[in-house]
Amino acid sequence: MTWQDIHRQVASALAFHHIENASFEAELLIRSALNITRAQFYAENNNITNEIPQSLLSMLERRIKGEPFAYISNQREFFGLSFYVDNRVLIPRPETELLVETTLELIKSKYPAQLPVTVDVGTGSGAIAISLASKLPNHRIYATDISPDALEVARINCSRHQVCSRVTLLEGNLLEPLPEPVDIVVANLPYIPRSTYKSLGPEILNFEPPGALNGGENGLFYIFEILEQSRTRLRPGASLLLEIGEEQSTEVMERAHSVFPRAGISSLRDLADKKRAILIENPQIPFDLTIN
Hints:
Layout: H1 3-16, H2 22-34, H3 38-42, H4 54-64, H5 69-73, E1 76-78, E2 81-83, H6 97-110, E3 117-121, H7 127-135, E4 140-145, H8 148-160, E5 167-171, E6 182-187, H9 194-197, H10 202-205, H11 221-229, E7 234-243, H12 249-259, E8 264-269, E9 275-281
Parallel strand pairs: 3-4, 3-6, 4-5, 6-7
Antiparallel strand pairs: 1-2, 7-9, 8-9
């Protein structure tokens, strides 16, 4: 039996249980279970086994039950890096890479001669903070999360990518654990309205942590809270970059204007042309180095 023979059987089982992209998912499961590369998978080969390996059968059973592949393999690629993930953290999504790209552009344009202090709020797996640290070897980056379990996963990923000395993990609510004001706030906070959250598919509802997705009645509880907290935790000329749902831009921009009347506020679109983030620049708030 070759890998291609195994692939046909696994893909057939996935399709029977209504798993989308069954052929591609079957390949991912096989490569993960057998620890082979894509090139090895597609290489010409003769008989390699008389039966499907038990490790693959176990993974297949979990996938058929709806568990996301990222949790089964404990791997997720984000911004060209491989991150450890499990059900203690949200699975990083490709659209969130917009936050990393925009933050890097901000730093390049606004801080060419100095090192800004950046915070990734609600860091989860640490994907945003670690991706930034991989491109900014001399910068200080804080990463906060209210979940100690999530911070354990982030710590694993900091070690994996050797950025422990540059990414400081802090437990607490949003900006509250910061020991100093910061120049850049970047955050992918829960923003799904409660009613919408309840209608999400079983792969999300049954496996991903609700605290990383449910944003309260209108989905904006945490986004509005971080805007309020930012009044006393930003340096002059600071920037805030917040991921949002595609229909939330007007409401978030209105609230941002009420908190920071003289700031420059704009929405950013992702590759699917959806409004994905709000950028708030130069809030012009009173500056106080003391964190309360």
